Structures are given as C-alpha cells and as structure tokens.
Amino acid sequence: MSAEDGVNFYSKVAPDFHASYSRDANRQERVRVWDEFLDRYARGATFAYDVGCGSGVLACALAKRGIESIGIDGASGMLAIARRTAVEQGLANLSFQQHRLPIADTSGFRAADLVISSSAIEYLDSIPQALRFLRNLTKESGFVVFSVSNHDSVSRKLVRTVHLLTGRPRYMKFLRHFMTVDEIKRDLAGAGLEYLEHAYFGGADRVNRLLSSFLPPRLTSNMIIVAARCRSSL
Questions:
Q1: HEC readout, 140-172
Q2: Rounded Cα gap, residues 160 and 10, in angstroms
Q3: CB < 8 Å & 24+ apart, contacts of 81-85
Q4: Which of 71, 85, 98, 179 has its CA 20 to 30 A from that of 49?
Q5: pLDDT of 232
C-alpha cells in the first residue's frame, strides 16, 4: 500500500470500525462465518497468526480457543484497540505486532499451525505475493484461511460505480483487488497452497438480501472466505 494509504485511513477510523461489529449486520455475519471455518481449521492448532488483524476481533476468537496467537497489522489505531480488548478479556496468550504488509523477510518468524487473514490481502499490491507471504508464515501441512472481496458481487459493482462518481465510500480508494473463485484457486496453486473449500458471505445488508431472492450467493455476497493447506514443497 502507498504511504497515504489504507494503513493510515484505517488507523484513523479504528474506533468506528471496531464499533461496527456491534451494529453492522454484515460484520456480524462475518464473525459467524469465520467462527464456522475456525471450528474446522483451528482444531488442534497451538500457535496462529492473524494477519491484518485490525481491531483484533478474530485474534481474540483464536486466543479464546486456547491458541497462542499473534495479531499483525500496520495501523497503530487498530492495534491500540486490539491490545486493550485483549487485556479486558484476560487473554494472556495473545499479543500484537505492528508491521507493514506483506513482510518481505519472514525468516525470523515462528511457523504457525494456522494463519488467518480477514479481508486484508485485497489492499496489498499483489495477491500472489500476499498468498506467498501467508504461506511462508505457516508450517508444512498447516492451514491458511483468508477472506477477499468478491468480484462477482452485484452490490460491490454498484458501490464501485458510486465511488468512481462520488469518492464514497472512502475505503474503496484503497481496495485494489476483487477476486473470483477460479482466480483464487490459480493464485493459491502458484503460492504453494492447496485449495480446500470456500464460502460466500457478506450478503446481510438490505440490497443483497433483496437480490438473494432471485440471484445465487455468488452474485449476492460481497466476500469470499477460502481455506487452504500448505503443500509439502513449493
């Protein structure tokens, strides 16, 4: 991301972003879907990273499962909330680090059983590079679970058009990638990751609920969540 970028933007809006988890139907749906994937892929994990952890909602969910976890983010405002929340919830097995993403050299990082990344990699310059970064943080045969903006979402296309005309919503300025499942599978293979499954979510708002009465989830969901496994060799 460039210097005047999403890192600075999200640092400034961190309090409102964190508060949205208690009032925004799409954020609440996000947590439900992520919990379902963590039920499957966090089982047996002892150490995990949350890359692009934001205000720490999912990092806290990992720690509450008894997994030693590290949240990584570039936005100081987000990390301040994440650290405070972890202390308030008594999560001694959770810590946070500030880094610009992706981290070029991960040689000094402990390999994790599980690496998660919720709607962060689409802000980075290159999806293939971002996926290699996630893979490099993960143990052989470990799991990577991430979500990314859905290219096929009708609602997303409308919002992108509105942004081109008005500059609103502001976060769209920093969102670089919208992916299809086929594109994700291709980039996973190139990063040394084996695709396992995906699901669509982000359809809880009024527009997507209306569209879902006559269109499939691929077209009425703003996000895709994907699970993958590290292959034994790149």
A1: EEEEEEEEEEECCCHHHHHHHHHHHHHCCCHHH
A2: 19
A3: 81/14, 81/15, 81/18, 81/55, 81/56, 82/53, 82/54, 82/55, 82/56, 83/56, 85/18, 85/55, 85/56, 85/60
A4: 179
A5: 67
Distance CA 78, CA 68 (A): 20
Query: In the prediction, which pLDDT does 5 show?
Result: 82
Burial group, residue 230, by CB count within 10 angstroms (0-12, 13-18, 19+): buried
pLDDT of residue 6: 86
Asked if residue 1 is part of any domain, the answer here is no
Q: Per the domain annotation, does 141 fall within a domain? A: yes
Q: Mark the ranges of the chain whose per-residue pLDDT is less than 50.
A: 1-3, 234
Q: Which residues contact 215 (CB under 8 A, 6 or more apart)?
A: 154
Number of domains in the chain: 1
User: The domain spanning residue 79 has which CATH number?
Assistant: 3.40.50.150
Q: How many CB atoms lie within 10 A of CB 206?
A: 9
Domain that holds residue 16: 6-230
| CA-CA-CA-CA torsion sign (145, 146, 147, 152) | negative
Contact (Cβ atoms closer than 8 angstroms) between residue 146 and residue 227? no
Give the pair of three-digit tokens for residue 55. Answer: 């205000």
